[in-house]
Amino acid sequence: MKPVKGNEIREAFLSYFEKQGHARVASSKLVPDNDPTLLFTTAGMVQFKDTFLGLEKRPYSRATSSQKCVRAGGKHNDLENVGFTERHHTFFEMLGNFSFGDYFKKEAIHFAWEFVTKDLGLPKDRLRVSVFETDDESAEIWHKQEGVPKDRIVRFGEEDNFWAMGDEGPCGPCSEIFWDQGKEVDGDRWLEFWNVVFMQYNRKNGVLTPLERPSVDTGMGLERMCTVMQGVESNYEIDLFTDLIKATHAYFENSLKHKIDLGNRENLCATRVIVDHLRSTSFLIADGVMPSNEGRGYVLRRILRRAVRFGHKLGIRDPFLEKIYPALEASLADVYPELSQRKSYILDVLKQEEVKFFETLDRGIELLDDAMKKGENSLAPDTVFKLYDTFGFPFDLTELIAQERGIKIEMNKVEELLSKQQEMSRASWKGSGAEALPNSVKEWQSTLKTTPKFYEASKTESKVLGIESTDTGSWIALDPCPFYAESGGQVGDSGKLVDKSGKTFLVSTCKKVADGLLALRIEGPCSLKVGDIVSAEVDDARRTKIRANHTSTHLLHASLRKYLGTHVHQAGSFLDDTRLRFDFSHNKSVSEEEKQKIEDWVNEQIQGAHKVTIESMSHKDATAKGAMALFGEKYGDTVRVVDIEGTPSMELCGGLHVANTQDIKRFKLIKESGVSSGVRRVEAVSGTALEDYLQEEITQKLKRVSTLNEEIFALQLSQPLPNLEKASAEENLKVINTYILEAEEKIQTKKKELKKQEDEAFREKVMSQSSDIAEDFAYKGHTLQLLAFEDSIAIDKLREIVDQARSKAAKDKVAFMALSKLGFFVSKTNESSFPISEFRQLLVAEQKFKGGGDENKAQGKVPPELNFASLKEWLKSKQNA
């Protein structure tokens, strides 16, 4: 029976290629590992990029996969087309078969034709193929080997039939298979669904270099294949979408209490946008991307807000994506279990962003109303752009409201502003790559190989294979190399090299150039030469502290999941010899009680003396065993499993660890904070580094104690000095912190008492003076009472004086002005019609006052040279003005 449903077609494809000797490889994350050239994973070959380049070895030479892909930013950006065409999506699945120097054109073409015509049963007379315009070899294989008539083989140029992953990287000519949808179809008659790329070149700086081992990369869009097999014209009519669309309609109709007219093109497109965007946003969040205002997070937020905007168009005013999510989970969770594993977290992030954007829409409408109140017949482009860029207010909604009110918008100028902003965004986005090595060092990968020995040794006799000097130091390749290269959040080892003469060269770090090739950073002048033999020595004391912090990170991760929930996953980390930092998915701050429980549990495991075992095994076996993969890490098919026996911590990790948890000695959380929406960060210290940290904290806190004691003495308070005779630095630090809290509280209480006394004394003084100094003046028939104090009274006190005077004269028609050397304040009773705004302008123009206000009050500064007697004379001169 022919496979027809989406899940059946996916499985048929993978099973076919498994029978042809291909290893079935799981989809990689939507965030490319250590690749600064890509925003998201856009094709099945992305995870095999280094394999194609010969930089990475895998235990197989043929592979097949179903890869999650997102195209919504950078070079591959389909976002604005989504929902309005039959084929565009932000998220899609790419089925692929790959050869890494194994088979090439003959086999790739045969596999494609056999699967399509036999396994899927598509009639040959409705198929056409294309080749690159100069690729005679492929055209001949299609004709002679597979029997495709020449009149069904077409040739296209580079734009259509030459594939590249990005501006740089593996590339080559391609050959495509097309399905004839029939003359009667509304749209493109010929639907391309299969693309086999013959990887022959590596493009670098615009130059094509032949690959040593030509390879094959095939992509078949699952959604397009479903369209063909299910006999529909649109991707949105296939089963992978129809269940989602039904769930969307059911929820909307229940919420709105009426049916949605899908005969209306706008309603149909809005529904398509929503279901597509639910797919992409859910998978992006599951893979660790969080909404933010830059990079990947900005694209995610934009997709999310686009979905909400189209829900708003349909009349929805409350969060709705979580209501549709169960249909997505039912459709794809069997293939992509992360949709169920991280369900609660995904729903939390979706709802949080929806609530935020609905509020933004309401705020945007208010701002738009204010901008339009001026009564002009056009709306400034920068106002429209600000509404979009700052508040996320959609252009089309702005246009619609403006249209209803007969106001024009120069959208071409708005688009110019948008274009400039996008250019700036592209220029500033740095991708996911780590700090770059010099290009000359990267080129070593084609000629040099080193033997990493950091798991086995911390000191080796090594040969210098390569050296590259820069203005500030040198990069060196050694064989073998005992230094650990910066990876997985762990810093690179430091240490020294000693040549045969005893001369020492300091190593500051170690970085990975490629698989089996490490580079050491030497600070300062370096006289070493290629071929020299050196003693390579890692700083063991520093490495010991790093080991403790790395194993502590694993225990911390397990503790966070235990006390905060299994939605917690790593979202980034960094650790060195001084401390560790761990970012994780969580939607609210961690309470003091939770922090204490998390810290206590980690210390319990440390004191429990649990053995730490490390075992290498296949990725499949590690997953089956329950090992957790860390976000952002790239794993090969053979992985290291770090198991802290007797605890729930078992992770895939290439880092360095202690042999037993008791070697860590002690662990302490020192800080918890927010990183971005839905991501929190904790910082901690462990091992011998903890004692160093505590001593430094004590030193800094004692400086604070000294400052507080000076304040205590000045305020004539008594406070017992802290007793620092406890057994440990940690206990002493607790004593100091308690002392500081108590001292600060006493000081604040005393200052409040003094302030209260000062305010009461001030009021008594002012009240006793006010009746003596009050003078009435007339201005345009209105009464102004002047209270002039030849003291330095601040404006807030002047306001208080006027408020008191006004409350006593509530029913009188009078205005009050309090004046001092520091400023003025004017206000009036409700019965008075004194023209305050006009009077303030007169003070500014003729008396050099500065300030602002409205018809009810005004305040500001007075000129330094102000003479009170002269001011009163001036006021008298205005009595008959």
What's the layout of helices and strands?
Blueprint: H1 6-19, E1 23-25, H2 49-52, E2 62-70, E3 72-73, E4 76-77, E5 91-99, H3 105-119, E6 127-132, H4 136-145, E7 153-156, H5 158-161, E8 162-164, E9 169-180, E10 190-204, E11 207-221, H6 222-229, H7 239-256, H8 265-286, H9 295-313, H10 321-332, H11 338-341, H12 343-372, E12 378-379, H13 381-389, H14 395-404, E13 408-409, H15 411-428, H16 439-442, E14 459-469, E15 473-479, E16 495-499, E17 504-514, E18 517-523, E19 533-538, H17 540-564, E20 570-575, E21 580-585, H18 592-607, E22 612-618, H19 619-625, E23 638-644, E24 650-652, E25 667-676, E26 679-686, H20 687-714, H21 729-773, E27 775-779, E28 782-788, H22 795-808, E29 814-819, E30 824-828, H23 836-847, E31 850-853, E32 857-861, H24 868-877
Parallel strand pairs: 1-2, 6-7, 12-13, 28-29
Antiparallel strand pairs: 2-5, 3-4, 5-11, 6-9, 8-9, 9-10, 10-11, 14-15, 14-19, 15-18, 16-17, 16-19, 17-18, 20-21, 21-26, 22-23, 23-24, 25-26, 27-28, 29-30, 30-32, 31-32
Helix pairs in contact: 3-4, 7-8, 7-10, 8-9, 8-10, 8-12, 9-12, 10-12, 13-15, 17-18, 20-21
